[in-house]
């Protein structure tokens, strides 16, 4: 395929505007161009289109999907909308990139995967953690037996205090592109720091160790309200959750999503009888190297925020144009979604949940 694909950006908030800054750079233009953006807040899509050079700005998603110049979409709306918007995109024949997380339930993820296969469209779901060189080196060391017998692991995030999303630059201004309300981050469905942030370490942990078998959890709300300017936001989704995963053969992992106090920040610590991966090191050996770069992130892209999400979009673009599948795929996303959904169910019921989904983790020959 020689013509650039047209991309439609769904939602014009924090991640969308950061991605549009990447998509307007000249090196991207030969492969994908900004065809349209939509957002239901009056004037926001138009303002984003003007600022970032998208060909069209729409107030409705339906209009964007009807635009024949849109070949693929990147869904940048609140997580609770992703499933329904994914279905609509597939029905319109568009390939889809999801800004994490793809859906909130396993059943919805199953349905998207089934529909995409039937319609012959591609799905890429962020975060594509296993595209990272450091994460791939960890998987390789594990597969080569460098850790000895696997013992246990711990990872997680501390985004539950909400401070990050309440204070992002798109939230603190007064014009339509800088007064984006973050209320959904605290509401059901789709809010809460696991779907938004802990999804990163969950992808990396399972990307390194492979699929988990069971999950149990304890969960609750630590901070009952937040303030966005004068607006009070009640916390509906738990902000303090500790998941306990079973990988089989007595290998267990703690995955926390809390309001403070990181044991390890995002990158997991994985312990074995012969060695440990701690953060981005194997013993004293650094696994994150200065020259590391994601396949599509060079030049100005490397200086811009969210370059890893731009990479995930370019994985979809490459898949559509060159038929090269991405490791940031819907099956891995579905497994992580099942862990999250089942974890909340375990916390509610007190019953450990069996996991039924799997995915194909990277083989040694691919690393
Ligand atoms: N903020 C970040 O740092 C960040 C980083 C990476 C990924 N993400 C992910 O990106 C997604 C969006 O997060 P965000 O922080 O950009 O949210 P946001 O609140 O900044 O923006 C969401 C936008 O979606 C719009 N919207 C609401 N309903 C819509 C609809 N029906 N159709 C189209 N647009 C609609 C809102 O008006 C708003 O402009 C989430 O899945 C989040 O996890 C966020």
TrEMBL record:
Residues 6-123 form the Gfo/Idh/MocA-like oxidoreductase N-terminal domain. It comes from Paenibacillus glycinis. Residues 180-277 form the GFO/IDH/MocA-like oxidoreductase domain. The lineage of its organism: Bacteria, Bacillati, Bacillota, Bacilli, Bacillales. The keyword Transport does not apply. Keywords: Oxidoreductase. This is Gfo/Idh/MocA family oxidoreductase. It comes from the Bacteria.
């Amino acid at each position: 395929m020689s013509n650039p694909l047209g991309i439609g950006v769904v939602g014009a908030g924090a991640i969308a505007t950061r991605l549009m800054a990447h998509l307007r750079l000249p090196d991207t233009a030969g492969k994908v161009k900004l065809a349209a953006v939509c957002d239901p807040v009056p004037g926001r899509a138009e303002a984003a289109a003007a600022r970032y050079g998208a060909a069209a700005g729409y107030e409705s998603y339906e209009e964007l999907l009807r635009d024949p110049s849109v070949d693929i979409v990147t869904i940048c709306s609140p997580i609770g909308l992703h499933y329904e918007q994914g279905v609509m995109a597939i029905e319109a024949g568009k390939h889809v990139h999801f800004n994490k997380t793809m859906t909130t339930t396993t059943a919805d993820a199953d349905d998207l995967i089934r529909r995409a296969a039937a319609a012959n469209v591609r799905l890429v779901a962020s975060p594509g953690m296993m595209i990272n060189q450091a994460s791939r080196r960890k998987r390789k060391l594990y597969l080569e037996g460098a850790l000895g017998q696997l013992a246990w692991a711990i990872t997680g995030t501390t985004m539950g205090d909400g401070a990050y999303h309440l204070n992002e630059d798109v939230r603190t201004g007064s014009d339509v592109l800088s007064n984006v309300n973050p209320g959904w981050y605290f509401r059901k469905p789709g809010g809460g720091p696991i779907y938004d942030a802990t999804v990163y370490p969950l992808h990396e942990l399972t990307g390194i160790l492979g699929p988990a078998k069971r999950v149990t959890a304890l969960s609750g709300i630590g901070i009952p309200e937040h303030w966005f300017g004068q607006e009070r936001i009640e916390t509906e989704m738990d902000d303090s959750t500790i998941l306990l995963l079973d990988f089989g053969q007595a290998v267990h992992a703690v995955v926390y999503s809390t309001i403070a106090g990181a044991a390890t920040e995002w990158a997991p610590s994985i312990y074995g009888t012969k060695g440990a991966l701690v953060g981005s090191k194997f013993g004293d050996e650094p696994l994150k190297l200065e020259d590391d770069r994601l396949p599509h992130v060079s030049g100005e892209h490397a200086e811009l925020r969210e370059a890893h999400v731009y990479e995930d979009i370019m994985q979809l673009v490459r898949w559509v144009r060159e038929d090269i599948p991405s490791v940031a795929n819907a099956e891995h996303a579905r497994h992580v979604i099942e862990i999250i959904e089942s974890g909340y169910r375990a916390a509610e019921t007190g019953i450990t949940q069996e996991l039924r989904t799997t995915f194909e983790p990277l083989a040694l020959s691919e690393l």
